[in-house]
Amino acid sequence: MFSLAIGLFFWYLGATLVLAFAGLEIAVVGVAFLMYARHATDGEKISIQGGQLVVECESAGRLERAEFARQWVRVEPKSGDHSLIELSGQGRSIQVGRFVRPELRQVLAREIRKALRSA
User: Fold this and answer.
1) Beta strand 85-89 with 74-77: parallel, antiparallel or unpaired?
2) What is the pLDDT of residues 21-77, one digit of tens each?
3) Confidence of residue 78 (pLDDT cuts 50, 70, 90)
4) How far apart are CA 43 and CA 40, in angstroms?
5) Counting beta carbons within 10 angstroms of the beta carbon of residue 27, is it exposed (0 to 12), middle (13 to 18) or buried (19 or more)?
6) What does the DSSP assignment read for 66-114?
7) How many other CB atoms sit within 10 Å of the CB of residue 91?
8) Smallest Cα–Cα separation from 41: which of 57, 64, 65?
9) If pLDDT is split at 50, 70 and 90, which confidence band does 119 have?
10) Residue 58 in contact with residue 76, Cβ under 8 Å?
11) How many CA atoms does the CB half-sphere of 23 hold within 13 Å?
12) Rg of the chain over CA atoms, in angstroms?
């Protein structure tokens, strides 16, 4: 808003291009806010509900949900120690761990395995 006030002041003084650039600045900031808002709710939720492992991954407003029978779930890294964790079973698979630091993904995999055994 302050940029718009400055632009209007200079437009009044005769420097018309300042207002155009102030409008462009406000538009760019608005687009940046929209992009941030689109990804503000991104996340992964892993839960055990009865005999099912339920995984929900939300990215840019798109929700991907997968359910696996607990006793058939495989938990393994996608390719290496710091790669995403792949949960698979019954012909389906989903990757989790995007929001976990790479060095902590193995800890997450162990916690998922432990929860699957104990629940």
Assistant:
1) antiparallel
2) 999 999 999 999 999 998 898 999 999 998 999 999 999 889 999 999 999 999 988
3) confident
4) 9
5) exposed
6) EEEEGGG-EEEESSSTTS-EEEEETTEEEEE-TTS-GGGHHHHHHHHHH
7) 5
8) 57
9) low
10) no
11) 8
12) 24
Calculate ∠ Cα 111-113-115, nearest 5°: 70
Query: Which pTM was predicted?
Result: 0.73
102-111 pLDDT per residue, tens? 999 999 999 9
Residue 11, C-beta contacts closer than 8 angstroms, at least 6 positions apart: 18, 19
In this prediction, residue 18 carries a pLDDT of 92
Q: Please name the residue that has the structure tokens 């761990």.
A: 97
